[in-house]
């Protein structure tokens, strides 16, 4: 690092941060760009919602699994080689996803993309803490966060345009040019391994337990939707996940070279920031998954129009993040985080009023309010978490706080998808129970049969098609009500996260 700073002079800080941001944008863009393509992917492969959610969550789960490897990889191979290898893996995953012949290969490609994103994202934060003085880290983190969060925010917009014009496979190739640019810049500006003698040992057992826990948990959540939550398979998968998670924590406490040191969470400021990050990850990725799905399946938007819904919010974050970075340098972390959580909760609470007639700009403004809140909170969340740690733990802390946010995203998308399906079934059953014997229902059926009779259809066909039409109307209404319930769940989660924010406000020893 010192040699590169001497070679490039004062601009080096900006150059190396830009190099890290380009790779981050390329990899994180893929987290949400596929959301607007899910209906097309489901139709192409003939799969249901339970399989489709894995396409979204496989990426986030892989990010979560490899993010904690960042500290060991950088210590062993240096920033330059770690960064280059991650981007090569991302390019390979993009090609595999775009050319996938079935959903299994597509999910494998998404895992490769996510694994590379998990290695790249914490690296940028480490670079900022190494090259910027303490009083400027919040501002630098705010600018870097533009790439981290603007990419998934704008992903659906770009994805919608590409799906409508070039087909769903093309969305997986969008990040390749940026990844290639990041690869070149990284080879030039990223530092190599430091010559510090002995290298940290790889925590193989810890990594294996973490992968088993994540794989079993996500598989169990997906299986539960298909086979029932009390089935033997689901019970076994979730039990394996719980056992592996407990084993992971116990092993990390025992080993002298932990991948994730649980003692980090004994530091109150860090633990509270990580808890808020968990909720924010669930809220951000969950709402970015739900909003395009709602407007396409309930309101009949095209992928382009669904993606454009998030464009105003993404542009607003460009303006908010630099301001929020400066606030992170001047205000106690709990204040911007608390304001951000409140705005995010307000945003998702407003979405509980969504229906088939909600105007485009009304929905877009609701989303914008939440993204402003996220933009205000994220720099303080990251800087506050790392500021609370001693210098020797900053590397692991960077991976851990990002781990919390990505884990929240992976679990949040899964749980919200499950809640959406279950509430759709609940409302459909409730609505169906109210239809029998109603005069309005009989009137609708008679009118539909009359219109079909004018087309020359026989009586049996008219009755069957009228009943099918009624079923579609009921299902559409049930789906709308279920989306409202899921948005309410996100709002309540954000309000619950104000508890660790209140704990952050307390002075040490108070």
Could you characterize the architecture of this molecule?
This protein is mostly helical. It has 2 domains: 2-192 and 257-426 and 480-505, Up-down Bundle (Growth Hormone, Chain: A); 203-256. The chain has 19 helices and no strands. It has helices at residues 2-8, 12-32, 38-45, 49-67, 70-98, 103-131, 137-166, 176-189, 204-227, 232-254, 268-297, 303-308, 311-330, 334-351, 360-387, 394-433, 439-454, 459-496, 498-505. Helix 6 (103-131) crosses helix 16 (394-433). The chain is elongated. The mean pLDDT is 81.
Provide the structure class.
mainly alpha
Which band does the percent of strand residues land in? under 5%
Structure annotation, total helices: 19
Reported for the largest beta sheet, the result is: none
**What is the percent of helical residues?**
over 70%
Radius of gyration: 24 Å
CATH superfamily of the largest domain: MFS general substrate transporter like domains
Number of domains: 2
CATH fold type of the largest domain: Growth Hormone, Chain: A
CATH class of the largest domain: Mainly Alpha
Topology as a string of helices (H) and strands (E)? HHHHHHHHHHHHHHHHHHH
At CATH level 2, the architecture of the largest domain is Up-down Bundle
Q: Give unreliable regions as ranges.
A: none
User: Mean of residue pLDDT?
Assistant: 81
Structure summary, number of beta strands: 0
Quote the distance from N terminus to C terminus.
Answer: 40 Å
The gross shape turns out to be elongated
Main location: membrane
Keywords: Cell membrane, Membrane, Transmembrane, Transmembrane helix, Transport
Subcellular location: Cell membrane
Family: Belongs to the major facilitator superfamily. EmrB family.
């Amino acid at each position: 690092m010192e040699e590169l700073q001497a070679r490039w002079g004062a601009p080096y800080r900006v150059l190396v941060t830009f190099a890290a941001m380009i790779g981050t944008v390329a990899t994180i863009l893929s987290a949400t760009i596929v959301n607007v393509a899910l209906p097309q992917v489901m139709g192409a492969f003939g799969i249901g919602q339970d399989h489709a959610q894995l396409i979204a969550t496989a990426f986030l789960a892989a990010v979560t699994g490899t993010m904690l490897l960042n500290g060991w990889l950088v210590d062993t191979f240096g920033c330059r080689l770690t960064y280059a290898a991650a981007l090569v893996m991302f390019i390979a995953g993009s090609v595999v996803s775009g050319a996938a012949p079935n959903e299994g290969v597509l999910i494998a490609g998404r895992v490769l993309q996510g694994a590379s994103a998990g290695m790249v994202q914490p690296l940028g934060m480490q670079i900022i803490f190494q090259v910027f003085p303490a009083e400027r880290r919040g501002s630098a983190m705010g600018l870097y966060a533009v790439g981290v969060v603007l990419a998934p925010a704008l992903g659906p917009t770009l994805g919608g345009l590409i799906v409508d014009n070039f087909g769903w496979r093309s969305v997986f190739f969008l990040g390749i040019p940026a990844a290639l640019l990041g690869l070149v810049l990284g080879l030039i500006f990223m530092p190599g391994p430091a010559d510090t003698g002995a290298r940290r040992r790889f925590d193989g057992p810890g990594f294996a337990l973490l992968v088993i826990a994540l794989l079993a948990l996500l598989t169990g959540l997906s299986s539960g939707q298909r086979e029932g939550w009390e089935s033997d398979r689901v019970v076994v998968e979730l039990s394996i996940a719980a056992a592996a998670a407990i084993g992971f924590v116990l092993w990390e406490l025992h080993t002298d070279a932990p991948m994730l040191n649980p003692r980090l969470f004994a530091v109150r400021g860090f633990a509270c920031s990580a808890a808020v990050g968990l909720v924010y990850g669930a809220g951000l990725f969950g709402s970015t998954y739900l909003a395009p799905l709602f407007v396409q399946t309930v309101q009949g938007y095209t992928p382009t129009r669904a993606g454009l819904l998030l464009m105003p919010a993404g542009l607003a974050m460009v303006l908010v993040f630099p301001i929020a970075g400066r606030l992170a340098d001047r205000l106690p972390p709990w204040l911007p985080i608390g304001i951000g959580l409140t705005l995010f909760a307000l945003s998702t609470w407003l979405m509980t009023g969504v229906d088939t007639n909600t105007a485009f700009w009304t929905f877009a403004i609701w989303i914008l309010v939440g993204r402003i809140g996220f933009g205000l909170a994220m720099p303080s969340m990251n800087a506050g978490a790392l500021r609370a740690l001693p210098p020797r733990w900053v590397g692991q802390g960077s991976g851990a706080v990002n781990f919390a946010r990505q884990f929240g995203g992976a679990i949040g998308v899964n749980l919200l998808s499950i809640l959406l399906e279950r509430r759709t079934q609940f409302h459909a059953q409730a609505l169906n129970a109210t239809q029998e014997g109603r005069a309005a229902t009989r009137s609708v059926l008679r009118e539909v049969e009359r219109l079909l009779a004018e087309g020359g259809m026989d009586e049996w066909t008219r009755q069957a098609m009228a009943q099918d039409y009624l079923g579609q109307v009921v299902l559409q209404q049930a789906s709308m009500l279920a989306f409202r319930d899921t948005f309410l769940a996100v709002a309540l989660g954000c309000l619950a996260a104000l508890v660790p924010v209140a704990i952050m406000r307390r002075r040490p020893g108070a």
